[in-house]
Amino acid sequence: MFAVSDIHLLTDENLRQQVKEHPRAQELLRALLYPYAAPDHDYVLRNRKVSPLDAGRSEAMDDLLRGRVPVIAAGSNRSPRQLARKFAPPHETVDIPVTMGWMENYDIVYCAHLTGYGSVPATILKSPGTTVRVAVNWLLPDQLHRMHATESLGRHYDYAQLPSVGIALDCGLTVQRAGAYIARYGAEFSPGDIFALDNIKAENRRYPARSQWEMLQYVARRAGQVPHPDFILRVIDDENFRHAQNGLRAD
Q1: What is the sign, positive or negative, of the torsion defined by CA atoms of 38, 39, 43, 48?
Q2: CA spacing 20 to 30 A to 208: which of 48, 131, 141, 180?
Q3: How far is CA 6 from the centre of its chain?
Q4: Which CATH architecture has domain 34-245?
Q5: Per-residue confidence at 249, pLDDT binned at 50, 70, 90?
Q6: 115 closest CA partner among 76, 159, 148, 73
Q7: How many Å apart are CA 83 and CA 77, to the nearest integer?
Q8: pTM metric for this prediction
């Protein structure tokens, strides 16, 4: 999924050097680059490639979205790279439209659990007064079923239909009801410690924003470990250790 050539996307020079020289660099990059690069405009994933959608409301846009379920893409599901991975053969599918907009009174924050590939993932959280930039995946029923299968439903996430979300899309539509994956462990690793994703735009943010590497360093220290790429590999390799970091813990 990731190549060593992607290493330039890491902004921390010391970390970049550590990863570059590591025999498991690709795995580390998959963890550290979450939630992955994504266009800040409407697009459709077609044949696992990105095709921009014309800006603005149109009859063609209405036709494209008709019969589909809008699902908030809080983390990596906004990224073409992740969508292409999830819908790779034998799960290849027809077009997946992704539209951008602004959501009021919510923020996109880190979940209090770790993924099997070593990242701290994302969820949405109520945040009165905050307006956050969001992507919406428009999924057909079979695509939604496949997405559920990739989201660890019942273990890490629950799926819910949120009413009155009021997402104002760039194309001119307003989404009043949308699906969302809600983290079962919540968003606090310790009481009051909630962190937003620093590469997701927001206005009037209530929670401090952190990069993926900053969050992994935080989790490592909470676990009494050295903040080093090898900590990520322990998260990947040791399921019991990984699960022990999940959920709210009192200091």
Answers
A1: negative
A2: 180
A3: 18
A4: Roll (3.10)
A5: low
A6: 76
A7: 6
A8: 0.93
